[in-house]
Structures are given as structure tokens and as C-alpha cells.
């Protein structure tokens, strides 16, 4: 699993993951402040602030390179991305019923989680692809 994680880091880059996590944290902080100030759904407030806490934790773990010491963390992060992505998609559907200022932040967070999932899955699939090399490249072509 360590080699898969190492290949994933090479594939998407350390900075790409940091930027995505910072976008998740900042967007959720703004959404949490706006929804707390407006007094919207309690479920929405909980999702925003839990995103701040969990994404902030993953940001710290990624920044200090703790993910390489615990090989289960990429799978935990994938489950988190999937679950919270679904929660934000549900909240996006609910926001069509009663549109408010918080709905823009819900759309932004849903988009960030979809991008995060796409980048994670793409890097994972790229890291799982076997490297094929010929032992004798000149002998591979026969005429």
C-alpha cells in the first residue's frame, strides 16, 4: 500500500492535494459562517463545520506526511470524499426547494468534492496501471 500511496503522490502531486483540501476548508468555513448567521438547516450547519474539521485534519496529516505511516488513511479519505460528496449533492437538491445565500456555498463545496473524487480516482487508477517493459526491445518487432 505504501508504494500505491507513493505513486499516487507522484501522479497528482503534493500541491494538488493541498490546494483541494484548502479549498474544502475555506469554502466550508465561509458556508458554515453564512449558514450559522442566517440560521438555516441544522443539518447544513453540521455538514459545513464537520467538513472544516475533517478536511482540516486531512490537510494536517497530508502536510506533515503522516499518510505514509498509516496505509489505511487513503481509504478512509476516499470514504470521507464519497460520503460528504453525497451529502453535499443531497443538500444541493434541497437548495432548489428553498434557495438562499448558503446554496451557493453548497454548490461550491459539492463541486470541490466532485473534483477531489475525480482527481483521487484518476491518480489511484494511474498508480495501479502496470509498467510494461520489454526485456529485449529490438526482438519485440519481427518482420
Give the domain tally.
1
Low-confidence stretches: none
CA-based shape: elongated
Query: Which series of helices and strands comes N to C?
Result: HHHHH
Q: Give helix % range.
A: over 70%
- Count of helical regions: 5
Query: What separation lies between the terminal Cα atoms?
Result: 42 Å
Tell me the major beta sheet. Answer: none
Radius of gyration over all CA atoms, rounded:
19 Å
Average pLDDT, rounded to a whole number, is: 82
* Number of E strands: 0
Which structural class should the secondary elements be placed in? Answer: mainly alpha
Approximate strand percentage: under 5%
Describe the secondary-structure layout.
Elements: H1 2-12, H2 14-38, H3 42-63, H4 73-95, H5 102-128
Describe this structure in words.
The chain contains five helices and no strands. Helix 1 (2-12) crosses helix 5 and helix 3 packs antiparallel against helix 4. The longest helix has 27 residues, at 102-128. The protein is mainly α and 143 residues long. The protein has one domain (2-127). The radius of gyration is 19 Å and the shape is elongated.
Amino acid at each position: 500500500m505504501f508504494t500505491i500511496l507513493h505513486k499516487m503522490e507522484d501522479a497528482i502531486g503534493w500541491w494538488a492535494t493541498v490546494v483541494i483540501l484548502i479549498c474544502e476548508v475555506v469554502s466550508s468555513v465561509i458556508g458554515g459562517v453564512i449558514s450559522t448567521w442566517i440560521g438555516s438547516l441544522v443539518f447544513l450547519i453540521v455538514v459545513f463545520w464537520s467538513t472544516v474539521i475533517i478536511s482540516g485534519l486531512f490537510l494536517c496529516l497530508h502536510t506533515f506526511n503522516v499518510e505514509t505511516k498509516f496505509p489505511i488513511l487513503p481509504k478512509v479519505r476516499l470514504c470521507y470524499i464519497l460520503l460528504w460528496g453525497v451529502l453535499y449533492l443531497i443538500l444541493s437538491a434541497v437548495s432548489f426547494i428553498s434557495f438562499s445565500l448558503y446554496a451557493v456555498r453548497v454548490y461550491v463545496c459539492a463541486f470541490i468534492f466532485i473534483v477531489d473524487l475525480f482527481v483521487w480516482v484518476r491518480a489511484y487508477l494511474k498508480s495501479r496501471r502496470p509498467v510494461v517493459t520489454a526485456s529485449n526491445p529490438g526482438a519485440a518487432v519481427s518482420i
